[in-house]
Amino acid sequence: MNTYKRHRFPPDIISYAVWLYYRFNLSHRDIEDLLAERGITVSREAIRLWSIKFGALYSRRLKRKQRGFGDTFYIDEVFVKINGRQHYLWRAVDQDGEVVDVYLQAKRDGAAAKRFFKRLLRSYGGEPRKIVTDKLRSYGVAHRELMPDVSHDDSQYANNRAEQSHEATRVRERGMRKFKSVGQAQRFLGAHAAVSNLFNLGRHLVRAQHYRDLRMSAFAEWSRAIV
Predict the structure, then answer these.
(1) What predicted TM-score, i.e. pTM, was given to this entire model?
(2) In the chain, what percentage of residues exceed pLDDT 70?
(3) Domains and CATH numbers, the chain
């Protein structure tokens, strides 16, 4: 099956526009201008539809090829207001800063925590060695019922890694002038996490040449995902 069947623009333009949208803090109008500067006339509405359709497709392919997560999960939740109603964005990252899962829910009680923990177990394919959370009691409920043998650290400041991981979402939320619906937010955040994980190369931790090699590997993996 041809992934790009019935699309007027060639695959390299579509995939490039989608990559720009999820990789950088750019609006659809920004990408329209970037393409126009290169002589490619495409509307921002077309770019928006590409981002919805192909962002989800690319992220599924990237997740299937994901190289695995670490054995320690840092878990946190942050409120997100959508259409005037408060929701909670649950996020888990590993010790390398890669996003294991993101999930929007209306509450942050014990039932919501258990739903998120079940998603984590499916994503990871088993139990992590350790989880790190804040002192929200809902985490204790989910931990006792779903993974009682896993080490649980809820000491002060231990969960800073998860709290800091929300910053990228806040930046994009401001750039998009808030999320318009729960479905739109979940779709965007899932695709954004997959692309961010692929290009999470730890530039400050490695030598320049090693970083360039890692970046080339990431581009190669991206090229396989967009075929």
Answers:
(1) 0.91
(2) 100
(3) 1-64+189-227 (no CATH), 72-180 (3.30.420.10)
